[in-house]
Specification:
By secondary structure, the chain is of the alpha+beta class. 25% of the residues lie in helices and 26% in strands. The protein contains ten helices and 16 strands. The chain has a six-stranded mixed β-sheet with strand order 3-2-1-4-6-5, sandwiched between helices. Strands 7-10-14-13-16 form a five-stranded antiparallel β-sheet, with no helix packed on it. Helix 5 links the parallel strand 2 and strand 3. 41% of the residues are buried. The structure holds guanosine-5'-diphosphate (GDP). The site of guanosine-5'-diphosphate has 22 residues, from helix 7.
Length: 367
């Protein structure tokens, strides 16, 4: 019997090991037609999250195998979590191959930012990483903006057709973009990370362009990957990103969800002004150093979330580290997978407490 693959995630179907990927009961597998594996079926029909974590070695193996077949890489990044969607596995591929970089979720950026400004900012960031793509496309797979532009760019550079390797970490919207390009609705697009396990090849109808869609990699450093699936979803902004401005003096503290918190260390004369950008379901609470201690001890799940009841204990048990950081005017402090702080009147001197795994970096202002 020829091998059957799941039309959701592309994995080879099997009916021997229910606990392994690609499982489908034998009776179902024998039925004619297209199949989803049990995992994709559950995601599709019940919205049930079934985590699959591809190891970095497996990821590298899949990607390297396909790099031999492809002439160009199409790498998708999330403009709202740009630093969080940067991962060395993907950057390494971009250093080796010709690439078209796609920046997704433009709809979440405030209107005053023109796509060309976004493109210039991205170009500079990529150059710092030693990457010079053939072109950059700024898109929103949600409303379709710029999708045709990706297609035109591929055609421009490869008029005779091409095999394109599509790369991106989980949640950047890679599946949504692939679907848009293919004009398809059937590939699993879910809010749930890691839904493609193997590479999946698809030809864009009426063209000589084949997309080789690779699994989504779970990157290092994203705070959203340290909480449960429900909290993870809440931390990915869907419709709008919230902005809240603070003017805080020495002795004041800010707690974001119960994910991380910081104390302001500035001297008495200065009151730095900064804005916090994050998904609107992430709560924040301004307080003073004394109350902060009490708050963290008390169970204020109603006030400080994510994490939620389900993942709070586990999150609290993560090893926390302190960082003393100075953010200058015009700089932004990025919390990967959570959001960022943009300093309007600085410097902002703070001591942050966050899980050891949390990726925290300073960048030149974006907004
Ligand atoms: P993948 O894991 O990279 O394949 O990402 P998905 O295509 O499954 O999308 C991840 C999440 O981002 C889902 O909740 C999508 O609805 C959302 N998303 C994808 N593209 C966009 C976009 O252009 N704008 C917005 N606002 N959300 C998007």
């Amino acid at each position: 019997m020829s091998k059957k693959i799941c039309i959701g995630c592309g994995i080879e179907l099997q009916s021997d090991y229910p606990e392994k990927n690609g499982y489908l009961p034998a009776a179902k597998l024998e039925e004619a037609g297209e199949h989803y594996c049990q995992r994709c079926f559950k995601i599709k029909n019940y919205g049930k999250y079934m985590p699959v974590r591809l190891t970095r070695d497996d990821y590298r193996r899949v990607v390297q195998e396909e790099m031999n077949n492809a002439q160009v890489a199409i790498a998708v990044f999330d403009i709202i979590d740009f630093e969080g969607s940067f991962d060395d596995e993907i950057l390494d591929v971009l250093r080796e191959m010709d690439s078209i970089v796609v920046i997704n979720k433009l709809d979440l950026i405030p209107d005053e930012k023109h796509p060309s400004e976004v493109a210039n900012w991205v170009k500079t960031r990529l150059a710092e990483e030693g990457i010079a793509p053939l072109d950059i496309a700024i898109v929103s797979s949600k409303n379709g903006y710029g999708i045709n532009g990706i297609f035109k760019k591929i055609k421009h550079f490869y008029p005779e057709g091409v095999e394109a390797l599509v790369l991106g970490v989980t949640n950047v919207g890679k599946s949504s973009i692939v679907n848009r390009l293919l004009g398809l609705k059937k590939v699993t697009v879910s809010k749930y990370p890691g839904t493609t396990l193997k590479s999946v090849r698809n030809q864009i109808p009426h063209t000589k362009i084949t997309l080789i869609d690779t699994p989504g990699l779970i990157p290092e450093g994203r705070i959203s990957d340290l909480v449960c699936e429900n909290c993870n979803l809440k931390m990915i902004p869907a419709n709008e990103i919230s902005r809240k401005t603070f003017k805080m003096s020495k002795g004041r503290a800010l707690i974001i969800g119960e994910l991380l918190w910081f104390k302001v260390l500035n001297n008495d004369e200065t009151k730095p002004i900064f804005s916090l950008y994050a998904a609107k379901d992430v709560t924040f609470h301004e307080t003073n150093e004394e109350k902060l201690k009490e708050l963290l001890k008390a169970d204020r799940g109603d006030l400080l979330t994510p994490p939620c009841e389900e993942c709070r204990d586990r999150y609290r048990s993560l090893e926390k580290v302190k960082h003393k950081i100075t953010v200058k005017t015009g700089e932004e402090l990025v919390f990967k997978g959570l959001g960022w702080i943009s300093v309007k009147r600085g410097p902002l001197d703070i001591e942050i407490t966050a899980p050891k795994e949390a990726g925290i970096v300073i960048r030149d202002a974006f907004i």
